[in-house]
Design goal:
Elements: E1 2-6, H1 10-13, H2 17-32, E2 53-58, E3 64-69, H3 71-77, H4 91-107, E4 111-118, E5 123-134, E6 140-146
Antiparallel strand pairs: 1-4, 2-3, 2-6, 4-5, 5-6
Length: about 150
């Protein structure tokens, strides 16, 4: 598996229009207040964009729960992970996911990953934007746009 993790020049690296859209929205909201409100990224209000989204909630033990798993992400990755723990993803991809998720949460800024995985029948290249947000209760929530 090939992977990269970036915290700068994301605009220049991302090719998926949805990722650019989410990044621009996050930066606009971050300038106006401390902590970007999750409500501005709630998948229930985003139509087709939600098909490429994942929402993660920290568990308090260093892991995350998939609170929402977009339909297109589930289709491409082999199944819906809603309600499951991120630590269930093993192997190199799981390490990249865990690292980028924790960094976004700890640093309070967007993290962008590119990773490629190959199976016997196909090669998949993913772009993944991780955005730290705040729930209405002040708790941390990560919003991911995956293409």
């Amino acid at each position: 598996m090939f992977s990269e993790i970036h915290d700068s020049e994301i605009e220049k690296r991302a090719h998926a229009p949805a990722i650019s859209h989410f990044l621009e929205r996050w930066h606009r909201l971050a300038q106006k207040r401390e902590g970007v409100p999750f409500v501005c990224f709630d998948p229930r209000d985003l139509g087709d964009l939600a098909d490429d989204m994942i929402v993660l909630v920290p568990t308090g033990d260093g892991d995350f729960i998939y609170a929402s798993f977009g339909a297109r992400v589930a289709e491409c990755s082999g199944g819906d992970m809603t309600g499951r723990r991120c630590s269930e993803r093993n192997g190199p991809a799981g390490v990249v996911f865990a690292t980028s998720n924790r960094r976004a949460l700890e640093e309070g800024r967007p993290i962008f990953t590119i990773h490629q995985r190959a199976s016997e029948t196909q090669v998949q290249m993913w772009e993944r934007l991780v955005l730290p947000c705040k729930g209405s209760d002040g708790g941390d929530i990560l919003v991911l746009s995956c293409r």
